[in-house]
Amino acid sequence: MIKIQNKQDCCGCSACVQRCPKHCISMKEDEEGFLYPVVDETLCIDCGLCEKVCPIINRPEKLPVMKVLAVKNRNEEERMASSSGGVFIAFAKKVIEQNGVVFGAVFDGNWEVKHTYSETLDGVKPMMGSKYVQSRIGESFSQAERFLKEGRKVLFTGSPCQITALHNYLRKDYPNLLSVDFLCHGVPSPGVWRKYLEEMSSFSAFKAAGKNSVLSSSIKSVPVITGIEFRDKTLHGWKKYSFVVRGSAPKADKNTVLLSDIHYDNPYMKGFLADVYLRPSCYHCKCKNGVSHSDLTIADYWGINQLMPDFDDDKGVGLVLLNTDKGKAVFDTLDMEVRVSSLSDAQRFNGGFKEDVKMHPKHNLFFKRFVDYRNLAELIERTVHKSLYRIAKRKIKNIIKKVFVQLKH
Ligand SMILES: Cc1cc2nc3c(=O)[nH]c(=O)nc-3n(C[C@H](O)[C@H](O)[C@H](O)COP(=O)(O)OP(=O)(O)OC[C@H]3O[C@@H](n4cnc5c(N)ncnc54)[C@H](O)[C@@H]3O)c2cc1C
Ligand code: SF4
Ligand code: SF4
Ligand code: SF4
């Protein structure tokens, strides 16, 4: 039976919940806002199936990467609507064309993030774009298994731990499954996101959002949110991506920009990127770098402006790691602009390869205050605030690092 002794040993994938034959495991949110399994021991028959599917207890061997590519979707509209190179939508279209089913993360009616599936292109579009919140997997693994057994093609996208869990759950290699994960910095707390949303939903909080926030002056009353993008490229480009909230309000257009922050100015993004409220398992990730056995890994090709400046137009370049023959075969059918690269180049600029992301020193203090603190944006600002001494120390460290890198090359 699943017993979580240490929170870092559960990535929240829900594979155990879906596999339990007695339906006696449920996911409950803890005080940091993450879901963990809780077993009703009175119903448990001690069959051990929950432990068998757990990606932390049963971790597959690492597989090496076959090929590393820099990629751009030739359809510029699709690339602009995606976070990176628009690789996900190209795969999704291919699978839908073949009467397949696509699984991915979407916002629900409350702007929280969940996994779902779609059999149509319209249903796939909301999956586009990174949502920097842990998604609730729900019943997705068992739904995918049903489609696979019917012989339908299935594209399943998710974090490396979700894909590791999917493969453990399925227990066999389905030729009609294409699994795609992404390089994963870590997932922020759904509870923190919910609180940030509550603050955003009141107009006064829009005003207090970030010191450089751009707010529509035409909005005079509480708006209804109609769209949220963590990675908008249309306002400041791909590298300076923005966190954008669109909405409607009386006497304003339906898609008025209510809030637009370059990522490093937005309080929620600042806390995420400073590793203040990632899931405990993300600080000791056991599923990255070949463990998930995904057919492909997709990511941002950060640093492409230095490595291949002529390929970078600031509209997004994707990094694609081809991990299996099946992944390569499907990728070869896509109409993409492709440059061959190397793992060492890709690793130089991308924190997503790191398995031991360092917990922010004020992580515990943040969560101690989180429940009662009335202004979350202010709490995040206070948590990530760096003294001048720390800023100077970091700058000197970076200069020394750069000099070393230049000497090496
Ligand atoms: C939490 C998180 C952390 C990431 N960290 C890094 C990183 O450190 N380095 C890096 O290079 N890239 C990272 N990425 C991946 C990157 O942001 C892009 O998602 C990826 O490059 C694919 O871009 P795209 O343009 O091909 O497609 P897009 O259309 O942008 O990709 C959307 C895909 O991502 C999936 N997705 C979106 N949000 C979630 C979520 N919360 N949980 C599970 N799946 C989700 C969707 O289902 C869909 O398959 C991260 C993504 C997420 C969600
Ligand atoms: S041991 Fe079996 S019955 Fe008990 S919780 Fe795990 S899967 Fe369910
Ligand atoms: S990692 Fe997944 S399978 Fe393992 S205990 Fe946590 S939710 Fe269950
Ligand atoms: S960092 Fe690791 S544990 Fe955290 S979401 Fe990503 S793959 Fe899962």
UniProtKB/TrEMBL annotation:
Q: Which PROSITE patterns match?
A: 4FE4S_FER_1, 4FE4S_FER_2
| Keywords from the UniProt entry | Iron, Iron-sulfur, Metal-binding
Listed GO MF terms:
iron-sulfur cluster binding; metal ion binding
What is the native source organism of this protein?
Answer: Marseilla massiliensis
Where, if anywhere, are coiled coils annotated? none
| Record-annotated 4Fe-4S ferredoxin-type domain positions | 1-30, 35-62
Which domain of life, per UniProt?
A: Bacteria
Give the matching PANTHER family. POLYFERREDOXIN PROTEIN FWDF, PTHR43193
Which residues are the signal sequence here?
A: none
Note the InterPro entries from the entry. 4Fe4S_Fe-S-bd, 4Fe4S_Fe_S_CS, FrhB_FdhB_C, Polyferredoxin-like_ET
What is the name of this protein?
Coenzyme F420 hydrogenase/dehydrogenase, beta subunit C-terminal domain
